[in-house]
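Reviewer 2 asked us to include a model.

Predict the structure of this chain.
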Amino acid sequence: MKPSSSILRHPEHIHSGLWKGSQLAQAQRPALSTGFSQLDDELPGRGWPLGALIEISLERPGIGEIALLRPALAQLGGERSIMFIQPPCAPHFHCWTNWGLHGQRLLWVQTDTLPDTLWACDKALRHNACSALLCWAPGARAQSLRRLHLAAQQSDTLLVMLRSPADTRQPCAAPLRLGLRPAEQGLQVSILKRRGPACEHTIPIVLHPERAYSSSAASHVSLDQPSSALSQPGCRVSSLAH
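Predicted model (structure tokens):
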């Protein structure tokens, strides 16, 4: 029997896992809005996929990566914890409260080695122990990340791996991979991988609208810039600060 022309035009009607390369895939798992409509418009399911590995690469910690995730974290129920595994800086409690996330219990896990970091992440996923898990694991291999992706699929956890740009040159099982660069009022987001066509443009995300300045002052360098989130001698600066 000859297949109907409708099915040939719309192969996604055969199975939700099928899509044409010119269109975004249908969401196979629940998604959580990013809180930024311009980013939602470019993601399958219009948000962060739950129960799947999300990879975010950034030049350095503290450029706004937690602020990007803040709207999604605020949508999660308070029954389960939000877990940070091996963040580069100590979480800042007062910032967490000022963001309105005081109803979310934050667990901070420190490990000694990369294998310990991956082990802790795997156990948290397999026990569905948290509503969101942010893990810093630079240098993790593709095989390890695939195992974490498979473990995440058995849960409804928002799983985000924060990595360096060098790591993006390696293959990764993550269905969604983003690259972040700092911008005057927030971030420039590049979609490096998604289930759908390539995204050729960057997406501006405004995190700090108060930094806008008039065109008459454009030739001057703004002195009102945040300090780096990297720890300085004699003080502890949190990656949550920005």
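Residues 29-207 form a domain with the Rossmann fold fold (CATH 3.40.50.300). The two ends are 60 Å apart (CA to CA). We have added this to the supplementary material.
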